Amino acid sequence: MIDATLVELSRLQFAMTAMYHFLFVPLTLGLSFMLAIMESVYVMTGRTIWRDMTKFWGLLFGINFAMGVATGIVMEFQFGTNWAFYSHYVGDIFGAPLAIEGLMAFFLEATLVGLFFFGWDKLSKVKHLAVTWLVALGSNLSALWILVANGWMQNPVGSEFNPDTMRMEVVDFAAVIFNPVAQAKFVHTVAAGYVTGAVFVLAISAWYLLRHRHEALAKRSFTVAASFGLAAALSVVVLGDESGYTITDNQKMKLAMIEGMWETEEAPAPFALFGIPDREAQETHYELKIPWVMGLIATRSIDQEIPGIRELLALSELHIRDGLLAYDALETLKVDESNAAARQTFLENQEYMGYALMLKKYVEDPRTASDEQIAMATRDALPNVFALFWSFRFMVVIGFYMIALFGLAFYMVSLRRRVPRWFLRVAFLTLPLPWVAAELGWLVAEYGRQPWVIEGVLPTFLGVSSLTVTDLLITVAGFLVIYTTLAVIEVKLMLKYIRKGPEEEESADNPARLDERFSPAFNRPQE
Amino acid sequence: MLFDYEVLRLIWWALLGVLLVAFAVTDGFDMGVAALLPAVARGDGQRRQVINTVGPVWEGNQVWFVLGGGAIFAAWPALYAVSFSGFYLAMFLILVALIIRPVAFKFRSKRDEPAWRARWDAALCFSGVVPALIFGVAVGNVLQGVPFHFDSDLRPFYTGSFFALLNPFALLCGLVSLAMLVLHGATWLQIKADGEPAERARRIGLVAAALVIVLFAIGGFWVSHMDGYRVVGAMDPMGPSNPLRKEVVTEAGVWLANYGAQPLLWLVPLLGFGGAALAMLGLFTRIGALSFLGSKLSVAAIITTVGVSMFPMILPSSSDPGHSLMVWDASSSHYTLGIMLIATVILLPIVLLYTAWVYKVLWGKVSESDVNKDMY
């Protein structure tokens, strides 16, 4: 049987490296587009201050981009190094979007990003602008393919188990690409990236404005961030609702978890605003519910039921028993490929074979599992309700806060009223929030998928490589040391360049005159 | 489907080679340059000059490695699973090097303190030498066979240790790989740098070229006496990808069997020598373009030699030879290989097109005096 410590360490390492990688990705997604917008203004108006803005934010983008690339390489290989059985089991499907990501997206952004930095004197204005747009396009396409892969883990469509090769294989590639979960995740994730980029620019610009430094640049950046950010923040929440809608078909358990909803509620189900879900007692204490809301969000109807956790657990047990039929047939096929009866039994029950594999945590041969072991495997279908319940709520609160923040910011700059200092302070203090929300989002998505690595197909603990605990200790410690060191260096460098600010002398326009014409919104408040 | 399963497997075997060669030919000179950095560049000005010869392109070049990983995952999932988990700690070292490299490029010149820059220079050198060595060591182990087996669920188990990887033949292969990438880095500097760094690289390159020739010859001699792996009986090239359904034996000289059957193939290893000799000639006569062409040829031919010698074997198992991974039983499904081929045929030419454009824009030598504040 598989060593439980090995599984825990493998999961820890993956979670650590993935969440670390995702500190850099959202900023790349958002900032690349904002650079393209700023440079477009430069090319259209010819005002060099917009070029200086592109260069200044581009410098910070570069520091972040290098970290994203460095930590992304680990992700591409970690499935093979640490999740070897997973890689064999689903590589036929999961590998394709990763490879296409490399071909279509990563190549584009990585090849052209060099010209973004080094090409200012070597390319015409328009060509350089094209390079910048293509870098933004590349990073966004990259997110598309990664989320196609990730979406398939949440909702494994278009594939079937092949008893001859003992793995999942693609039967419908279009279904994998147009997986509704993947599409919803893609738009939600990139929009969250745009918000991150917008908050980054907004917060740092606010900091300059508070200190009356680089005001010409900061005001324009603030305005770009306010408009871009408002559109992005609205999309995140609206499209996040879209993700909520799709999981009702595919991941009912995750939804019930997020709601701490133990019993199936009568339609339309209420939304739990507050509560303390208790996994042991299987109930949610101190619950505060808003009637109807959940039913409306999740089913967009008033008559469809949303199943509760207990009902889903009972279903799991039935699936385990059906899965055992498939497992038994497969064992027969292993020794006798041509047994037609076994093949038939397998085909009829294969949908639930993953549930039988859950028993491998307790017994070598699932067919010999006792009723008690089946009950234990059933209970495993229940992840940490408390963590999901609250991660989700914090993420949503941050989402609505962003709409309010950017709504106000946009109102202040577009209606040309002045931006008060308190608002600049609030904008600056918002800086860490998009990262918090993004990490919580991953927690809800990935932790919420447990105990599955591929929903209903492959339990997480089975996916690991046959390594030793020592191997894992070495690499977990290694990543921890390298990543911590790099984090410290990167933050210090960012701070150094933010403090230093943009190169002033490059701006040929007369900043004072320009400022007045550009936006009186930022005239210094009479304090 | 346009092609049958056998043809698609052959195409993907060839594409695997193309990707590895493309990685070694492009990112290879980045690694070579990084490895050469302390030896060819004295003082901060020269260091920055040398770094900036690869500054704008290493990031794109590195994608060949990432794409290689993705393509192995998609087309040869069993190979991806067995090799990367088997070579676990070696792979970790490569990843460490490849994590450090991007940040070293990006961060090095962002502070003025000499100690800061010296540390990143050392990191860059590490990120060039270590992967170059380990890639060779890994290939050396693949040629000898790697101790792994599957259980009946096809869960792979690796039974060797990290230190067992460092056997004499594998270390020799590691040196071949290091010498060849150092040579490649040196010839790159002939076309992209001038002044003292280029001259120092020229002299080191001459030594590296000689080493490539000698070490590759020793390696070839060794392989001809080493046990290779051969399938007993016929195999269905269209059969399902299940590596448990065959019998494999080991025999001395098997790795040369393909050359016996197809004497034209001798051209491949000969090009490995010829390329290095050409590079030497180019370095000697100070014709940079000739030396770079020579090292490119040599790198491509040496990697191709390994593939051609082992075909149709991909990853032999020394502990359970019957579980070895072969072109005919370790690939993705027919459907996935087909889809991936379509994607590649459409997208790869586009990649090549804009990559070529980027190199054209950046055409010309980088001098010490060219280095400005915007650069690395």
TrEMBL record, chain B:
<dbReference type="Pfam" id="PF02322">
    <property type="entry name" value="Cyt_bd_oxida_II"/>
</dbReference>
<feature type="transmembrane region" description="Helical">
    <location>
        <begin position="264"/>
        <end position="285"/>
    </location>
</feature>
<keyword id="KW-0349">Heme</keyword>
<feature type="transmembrane region" description="Helical">
    <location>
        <begin position="204"/>
        <end position="223"/>
    </location>
</feature>
<keyword id="KW-0479">Metal-binding</keyword>
<feature type="transmembrane region" description="Helical">
    <location>
        <begin position="124"/>
        <end position="143"/>
    </location>
</feature>
<feature type="transmembrane region" description="Helical">
    <location>
        <begin position="12"/>
        <end position="41"/>
    </location>
</feature>
<keyword id="KW-0408">Iron</keyword>
<protein>
    <submittedName>
        <fullName>Cytochrome d ubiquinol oxidase subunit II</fullName>
    </submittedName>
</protein>
<keyword id="KW-1133">Transmembrane helix</keyword>
<feature type="transmembrane region" description="Helical">
    <location>
        <begin position="86"/>
        <end position="104"/>
    </location>
</feature>
<feature type="transmembrane region" description="Helical">
    <location>
        <begin position="335"/>
        <end position="359"/>
    </location>
</feature>
<keyword id="KW-0812">Transmembrane</keyword>
<feature type="transmembrane region" description="Helical">
    <location>
        <begin position="163"/>
        <end position="183"/>
    </location>
</feature>
<keyword id="KW-1003">Cell membrane</keyword>
<feature type="transmembrane region" description="Helical">
    <location>
        <begin position="297"/>
        <end position="315"/>
    </location>
</feature>
<comment type="similarity">
    <text>Belongs to the cytochrome ubiquinol oxidase subunit 2 family.</text>
</comment>
<keyword id="KW-0249">Electron transport</keyword>
<keyword id="KW-0472">Membrane</keyword>
<keyword id="KW-0813">Transport</keyword>
<dbReference type="InterPro" id="IPR003317">
    <property type="entry name" value="Cyt-d_oxidase_su2"/>
</dbReference>
